[in-house]
């Protein structure tokens, strides 16, 4: 009887410890969220009129020295941002999400750009083999549930990269002219305790093209074949002349973003 009672007590102690640990994690996260929001207000006040390379320079070299990383799909426009980063500090971490479903041309383009720009810290993140085995053993999840497919192939690997706590700021190449959810994109955003920087938010397609020319940047081989935006091969189609720049992405689905830019991924997710 005494042993039963002592087992129950031990269980209660463990449960209380788990609850306290959970509450502490939530408090720490809430603090990070508030701090990031305050920092974004301060960044907007200091650098609100800047963009492109000059903005990146001050962020990489001063504001977030040693704690900033970029993500890149090595897609149609990626070379512009990567060229700026390489010019400032070629050892800046660049996270490349290899979903295992990319075009062969993209893998080749990664090699081309890394060598052309001299990028020395490309961090390749891949989906967990266990998650693939359990949720997408036949590799056709994209057809049945594209959100879940993007989640295990993109969001979770990104979460691993940023969840390490190594980075406080995240550089993305998104632009307002891409439309849809990006239409009102700001240069600085606070997302779940992380600061996102979009130095090309206000850039136009013409400005991107001009930068490719002036810097002699190699083009992704699929651009010449009619792909203005390039992701996984199952979910990327050629666009017609006059289409939105991202019209070829998830063309026959009610989906316009993969999920890595959804606001709540750092706080945990319901998917899948
Ligand atoms: S873009 Fe398509 S194939 Fe790639 S991860 Fe998302 S659903 Fe899967």
What do these coordinates show?
With 272 residues, the protein is an alpha/beta fold. It has a single domain, classed as Rossmann fold, CATH 3.40.50. The chain is built from 8 helices and 6 strands, in the order ααβαβαβαααβββα. Strands 3-2-1-4-6-5 form a 6-stranded mixed β-sheet. The longest helix is centred in the first third of the chain and has 46 residues. The N and C termini lie far apart (44 Å). The mean pLDDT is 89. Iron/sulfur cluster binds next to α7.
List keywords for this structure.
272 residues, alpha/beta, Rossmann fold, 8 helices, 6 strands, 46% helix, binds iron/sulfur cluster
The top-level CATH class is Alpha Beta
Computed over alpha carbons, the radius of gyration is: 21 Å
Instruction: Please give the number of β-strands.
Output: 6
Number of domains: 1
Q: Taking all residues together, what is the mean pLDDT?
A: 89
CATH topology: Rossmann fold
The largest pleated sheet is described as:
6 strands, mixed
Within CATH, the superfamily carries the name HUPs
Strand content: 5-15%
* Residue windows where pLDDT falls under 50 for at least 5 positions: none
Strand order of the largest sheet: 3-2-1-4-6-5
The SSE string, one letter per element, is HHEHEHEHHHEEEH
What is the terminal separation in angstroms? 44 Å
């Amino acid at each position: 009887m005494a042993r039963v009672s002592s087992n129950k007590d031990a269980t209660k102690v463990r449960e209380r410890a788990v609850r306290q640990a959970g509450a502490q994690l939530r408090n720490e996260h809430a603090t990070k969220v508030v701090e990031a929001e305050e920092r974004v207000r301060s960044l907007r006040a200091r650098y609100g009129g800047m963009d492109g390379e000059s903005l990146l320079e001050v962020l990489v070299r001063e504001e977030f020295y040693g704690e900033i990383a970029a993500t890149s799909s090595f897609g149609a426009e990626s070379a512009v941002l990567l060229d700026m980063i390489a010019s400032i500090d070629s050892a800046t971490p660049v996270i490349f999400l290899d979903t295992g479903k990319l075009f062969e041309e993209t893998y080749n383009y990664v090699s081309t750009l890394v060598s052309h720009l001299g990028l020395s810290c490309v961090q390749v993140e891949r989906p967990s083999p266990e998650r693939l085995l359990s949720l997408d053993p036949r590799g056709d999840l994209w057809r049945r549930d594209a959100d879940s497919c993007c989640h295990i192939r993109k969001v979770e690997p990104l979460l691993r990269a940023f969840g390490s706590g190594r980075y406080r700021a995240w550089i993305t190449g998104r632009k307002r002219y891409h439309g849809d959810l990006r239409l009102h994109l700001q240069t600085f955003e606070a997302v779940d305790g992380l600061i996102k920087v979009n130095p090309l938010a206000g850039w136009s397609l013409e400005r991107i093209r001009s930068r490719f020319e002036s810097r002699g940047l190699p083009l992704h081989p699929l651009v010449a074949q009619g792909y203005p935006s390039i992701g996984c091969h199952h979910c990327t189609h050629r666009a017609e002349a006059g289409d939105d720049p991202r019209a070829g992405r998830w063309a026959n689905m009610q989906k316009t973003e993969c999920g890595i830019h959804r606001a709540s991924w750092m706080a945990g997710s319901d998917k899948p």
